[in-house]
Design goal:
Layout lengths: L7 E9 L6 H10 L5 E5 L3 E6 L11 H6 L2 H16 L12 E7 L4 H12 L12 H5 L3 H10 L5 E5 L4 H14 L5 E8 L5 H9 L25 E2 L1 E9 H6 L6 E10 L9 H15 L8 E3 L6 H15 L5 E3 L2 H4 L6 H9 L2 H4 L1 E2 L23 E2 L5 E8 L3 E8 L4
Length: 412
Amino acid sequence: MDNTQQRIVITGVGLAAPGADNLADFRKKLLAGTSDIQEIDLRYFGSAPAGICDFPETKYRKKKENKRGTRAGCFGVYCAHEALASAGLAHDYYDPARIGVYIGLTEHGTVETENEVYNISKFDYNVDYWTHHHNPRTVLNNPAGEITMSLGITGPHYSIGAACAAGNASLIQGVQMLRLNEVDMALAGGVSESTGSFGIFASFKAQGALGEADDPRMASRPFDQSRNGIVVSEGACVYVLERLESALERGAKIYGEIVGYAINSDARDFVLPYAPRQAECMQMALDRAGLTPEDVDIINTHATGTKQGDIEECKAIASVFGNAAPHINNTKSIIGHAMGAAGVLELAGNLPAFDDNMVHPTINVSHLDPECALPNLVLNEPVRRERMSVILNNSFGMVGINSVVVVQRYTP
């Protein structure tokens, strides 16, 4: 067999999102359009709406281990174990040297560095009070490495820095490594501990891109005329990826098959998105999947609630899909923007559509921006389709990186 054509499937999903720590509860929240965005207080900055996760951090690792590691590592360890449990896999089913761990990140180390600077400020900036754990906590491979230590995985591990396209990029990496026969199983996903960094909030505020509202649950409102920016969220999602024949051999539940993907670059601006390159990325992913726009049932948008960002993506979708009629939704309206975990969390929230045939809504849209008025945009209430076969998942990031993953309902 041509390895580049091997079928790669999702057999496990572990997640932590604002308001949910498992896929079933997450799906219920999304279908109900229930937001758990809350107001938090940040040192130096003040209050801001944010998405905060509550998950059993000591389910798979002791409190002492969590304290030595990072919150990003806590997310990764929890979600990796949950993904294996949902896949019905013991961690030693595969040779540990043949398992790869690929974790997408928007940033890492900022939280730990801010915390240490704050700590030594209490001691007149005496660096004797700087923790000796700082270096291993802040290296970019840390969250992936913490997963390997928890599970005894001796295969390759690394983090993928691709801004807010990183979650999708990690899935793509997992697919490629399986097809290259470098690994027999991949744990691929993304994590975000961004709510621990006042610098991220301050930067978005300085850019005029931080979402605000009297009711924090209304702060994330992509496509609405009154939208005013991003709601920062933490969270994580990790998938088990396997070759189809391996999954079938052990009778695994298959959540979906990754049939297409693409990554490209705008090569234009540090922060401003560009519709033509986004459109090219979507078209490349469809071409690789051997699908047409008419084959797609759901487009999960990246739209973050910034004026230009939402409009550029809508232009891109319109140029690719034309008169095709996929339903279009946005998960960030409910959970905020989970940065490096955004793509994988948002895909996870839509995967159950293959079973329930429902499209979860985009919420908080009272007055739709005419420049975002795409056909079949699912607003405020879920809708049902007769059958769900294909999901296209968009994730775009700063410095002009675009990623698209296409997942299809598994059929023999």
